[in-house]
Design goal:
Layout (H helix, E strand, L loop, with lengths): L6 H14 L5 H9 L7 H10 L6 H12 L1
Length: 70
């Protein structure tokens, strides 16, 4: 059962997201130094950020949050 779509719920989701999903850019540096592409599709983001709890860069975390809010 989903909570009601209110401003209070959105603020709560934002706080939980910020408290539990770390910012991390080491993988970005790794891919940059190797000259390889960093996967940014939804499946890769979910696997890395949610399943492995590795964190991500701001645009990755925001893309995943937006996808989950839809």
């Amino acid at each position: 059962l989903l909570p009601p779509a209110t401003l209070e719920t959105l603020v709560s989701i934002g706080r939980c997201h910020a408290a539990n999903v770390p910012f991390e850019n080491l993988l970005f540096v790794h891919h940059t130094l190797k000259g390889t592409a960093r996967p940014v599709d939804q499946a890769s983001l979910h696997k890395r950020i949610v399943a492995r709890r590795q964190g991500g860069m701001c645009q990755e975390m925001n893309a995943l949050l937006l996808h989950n809010l839809k």
